[in-house]
Amino acid sequence: MKLLISIARTFVGILFIFSGLVKANDPLGLSYKMQEFFEVWNFHWLDHFTLAFSLIMIVFEIVAGVAILLGWQMRLFSWLLLLLIIFFTFLTGYAYLSGKVRECGCFGDCIPLTAGQSFTKDLILLVLIFFLFTVRDRIIPALRPVSSAAVLILATILSFSFQWHVLVHLPSVDCLPYRVGNNIQEKMKPPPGAIPDSTAITMVYEKAGKQVEFDASQFPADFNDSYHFVKRYDKLIRKGNADPAIKDFNLLTGAGTDTTQAVLEARGFKLLVFVKDMDFVPRTREGFGVLLAMAKAKNIPFYLVTGDYDELSAWTRQKGIDSLITLVKCDATAIKTAARSEEKPTIYLLKGATILRKWSYADYDGTLPAIAELPDQSKQ
User: Fold this and answer.
1) Measured between alpha carbons, how far is 96 from 81 in angstroms, rounded to an integer?
2) Is the pTM value of this prediction over 0.85?
3) Measured between alpha carbons, how far is 200 from 191 in angstroms, rounded to an integer?
4) Cα-based torsion angle of the residue sequence 63, 65, 70, 74 in order, rounded to the nearest 10 degrees
């Protein structure tokens, strides 16, 4: 029994620490996944709290994993872990059975799991944690209480510190499709060998006050003028795997013209600055001017990508820089995926459609020597 308890403790503890660390690399990603669940349940009023929920949940996962390994306060942590895994199992089970959420974000974007895989994982963990809950009084602490408390306090401080760092400076390990070295155009295409969705054109007709559906190969034998057409739609027969890694990355002009391909296919270097809204202005005004001046000196196109087009357009006109900047609209979800820096712009240096470098605006000083090393594009 002691061996079984040790194996269960080690497995559960390490898995919780690993899961927490992977999420801590990108707490905004977990925050956005929470928003997806809240939108499905119409809990929109919770959207403003998802980042705080994300930070606290990640720290708790790491600390709980450490506590299980140390065997510290097992009466408390066995209850907390049991409640947490019941909650997680409900979430992943809902995602799997409802089909409304395709991924739960259990291991972030670095280790994407399907809803079914996440649900299976949580069922296994539920059994193991319930087992630990039943034998919690037989678990002997590995360290003295004071030493265990010190380790847990240190784990808490380090967990919060690491998350603060990546929120300010971008994830330490970039697992997103917008990672450095990727070609945005290539990532907007379905992966090689992908199988597209299989659909069938389905007709809806009305007869005798009732609606009937059928496809082109299954017309009713009595089909005649008594059937009145209502609509037609594509019915999904088999789900494929042809979804591109980058979706909804569309750059639009103020008039709504799609300029995505024109921007990405243009040769040479270019700067894309992703700005969620006008909140960036008081935080980054001085650095923004220096960055724009350097780009102008090198004749490097400067694109401001935003979901708040009208406000940013008025601001650039007010500052007299509208002729130096190409302002484009982009879907808010695409901006949140590309710019993982909370409330600060994210800067991309591209050559063609390939991402060469990326910085949080907190590190914009790093862009200056990088741009200084680039050749003057007017001479290319």
Assistant:
1) 22
2) no
3) 23
4) 90
Sheet of 228-238: strand order equals: 210-215, 198-207, 228-238
Choose from 160-169, 183-192, 291-300 the range with maximum mean pLDDT: 160-169
List the helix and strand counts (H, then E) for the chain: 12, 8
- Tracing tokens 């079914």 back to the chain, one arrives at 116
Burial of 178 from C-beta contacts in 10 A (0-12 / 13-18 / 19+): buried
Dihedral (CA of 82, 88, 91, 94) sign? negative
The per-residue pLDDT for range 115-133, each reduced to its tens digit, is 788 888 889 989 999 888 8
| Matching residue, tokens 């914009």 | 364
**What is the average pLDDT across 19-42?**
85
Beta bridge partner(s), residue 305:
274, 328
Nearest-CA neighbor of 186 among 354, 340, 337, 357? 354
CB-based contact 19:107 (threshold 8 Å): yes
pLDDT at res. 153: 94
Q: For residues 85 and 226, what is the distance between their CA atoms, to the nearest angstrom?
A: 56
Comma-separated ranges of CATH 3.40.30.10 domains in the chain: 260-379
Which of 292, 359, 368, 285 minimizes the C-alpha distance to 327? Answer: 292
* Pair of tokens at residue 14: 């390490």
Return the beta strands (E) in 96-185 as ranges. none
Judge whether residue 221 has pLDDT over 80. Answer: no
Burial 213-249 (b: 16+ CB within 10 A, else e): eeeeeeeeeeeeeebeeeeeeeeeeeeeeeeeebeeb
Q: Tokens in use for 145?
A: 């209480």
Instruction: Please report the beta strands in the chain, taking only residues with DSSP state E, as ranges in sequence order.
Output: 198-207, 210-215, 228-238, 269-275, 302-306, 326-329, 346-351, 354-360
Superfamily for domain range 260-379:
Glutaredoxin (3.40.30.10)
Q: Which two tokens stand for residue 367?
A: 């862009």
For residues 170 and 25, the answer to whether their CB atoms sit within 8 Å is no
